[in-house]
Amino acid sequence: MNPERVRLLNSAHAGQGPVLYWMGRDQRVQHNWALLFAADIAKKKGVPLYVLFCIVPDYSVASATQYQFMISGLKEVAHSLRNKGIPFILKYGDAIAEVYRTIKEIEVSTLIMDFDPLRPRTLWKDSLLKKINIPLYEVDAHNIVTCWKASPKAEFGAYTLRPKIQQLLPAFMEPLPELPVFSGISIPDTDWSSIPSQLFSTAISQQQDLPKAGEIAAVSALNDFIENRLPDYQEHRNDPCIEGQSGLSAYLHYGQLSAQYLAQCIQKTDVNPDSKSVFLEELIIRRELSDNFCYYNSNYDNINGLPTWARKSLETHRKDERSFVYTLAEWESCKTHDELWNAAQYQLLQTGKMHGYMRMYWAKKILEWSKSPEHAIKYAIYLNDHYSLDGRDPNGYAGILWSIGGLHDRAWGERAVFGKIRYMNAEGCKRKFDVKKYIARWKK
Ligand code: FAD
Predict the structure, then answer these.
(1) pTM above the 0.90 mark?
(2) pLDDT tens readout for residues 132-176
(3) How many CB atoms lie within 10 A of CB 222?
(4) Of 52, 114, 224, 366, whose CB is crowded by the most CB atoms within 10 A?
């Protein structure tokens, strides 16, 4: 394993107890570098390995649907770990208190966590470091090229990150080993009863057409994409009337699918090379650029995270008259004058997903018809994080700040409300795809 995937966060001394992997955003057993690293330490020390997951109530506007998708995936994780002789401990409540209690209960000697650049887990990591006196290792099991190795700073855009990633990629695209089997300890059943049923019991009635959760479903969705849509990905991906994208973002977001495994599967295929390279650009460069942004910019979810030129330009146009001004409740319930915008929001409400091209239009119109850029960012983040199955992800914050605030983009011709932020309108959409068909498909 490339040692650059891992960093030791403190200088505590390891005793002889079990190793604990505190699973976070990489919720899978296969192709998980954090789990492989933890297994390697446990094997070398000749001690048991445990995996802990803590479900946190009211986690960052998470919806019942999102909790349900995650919990279904975790049930599969528990089952697969059992087959490997590894106990899965499930906790519900305050993350730090539960991790700390587990460390004491099973007398853990070494703790491993997976890397997540977002605020909640960064704060947990900092608090935990103040409490524990065992080594804590962090492993980037989500990015192909470790986020803090790819670049030491926030990048200007894909064009500045791309050469850095491309240079390091061969050393990180190493073969993904099999997780070893452990033996010798009895594995208690995971206790799911601590999770209150109201956390996810209303989910089914809210959204239909949701994908099946878990690693097995993720791999079959990946195979379906490679077989049926990858050959025409380049041509079809920007047409919201065609399901031409991979549809894998929720699996990637919850870590039910490894981006590296996905990239290696794509590389091995023998299809249209242009489609392959366009897909790998999105999967690797664009996705890892989002992690780079959130890791190095603590204002990743507000106006202060925008480039200076964009903030200045939005400020100049703050008082421009808006042709419509909608409240969050109106946006949320698809009550705008714009049928195309409403259709995109209906698609999100019904399926937990909005087509990638429509996401840009959707966010830009929220800027155009909200009372300020701050309101627009807040509304877009809430709607995306609450309703989108892949929400609460660095890609979401980067995508929203790109659309509303010119992040990773350049200045365009100046116009009302938008200032120098790139503009999009329904006429442009009409030139790209059959707008009437999309509206008809996603009517209430
Ligand atoms: P595919 O086209 O099949 O792409 C494969 C993978 O590449 C995606 O799953 C994703 O991991 C990555 N990718 C593709 N496009 C982008 C992009 N523009 N930026 C970064 N990574 C990309 N993506 C999320 O995962 N979660 C979000 O909450 C999210 N919110 C967004 C909000 C807005 C306003 C915008 C403009 C974009 C947002 N994106 C988000 C990025 C992108 O739209 C989605 O990743 C993509 O549509 C997901 O569908 P897919 O997996 O079928 O994509």
Answers:
(1) yes
(2) 999 999 999 999 999 999 999 999 999 999 999 999 999 999 999
(3) 20
(4) 366
Cα–ligand 1 centroid distance for 283 (angstroms): 8
Q: What contacts 104, CB < 8 A, 6 or more positions away?
A: none
DSSP 17-86: S-EEEE--S---STT-HHHHHHHHHHHHHT--EEEEEEEPTT-TT--HHHHHHHHHHHHHHHHHHHHTT-
Of all protein residues, the one whose alpha carbon is nearest to atom 33 of ligand 1 is 399
Identify the bridge partners of residue 53 per DSSP, sorted by sequence position.
90
Ligand 1 closest atom vs CA 360: 36
Task: Locate 15 and state its tokens.
Answer: 């005793």
- 256 CB within 6 A, ligand 1: no
Positive/negative CA dihedral, 57, 58, 62, 68:
positive
Alpha-carbon Rg for the chain, nearest whole angstrom, is 22
Residue nearest to atom 51 of ligand 1 (CA): 249
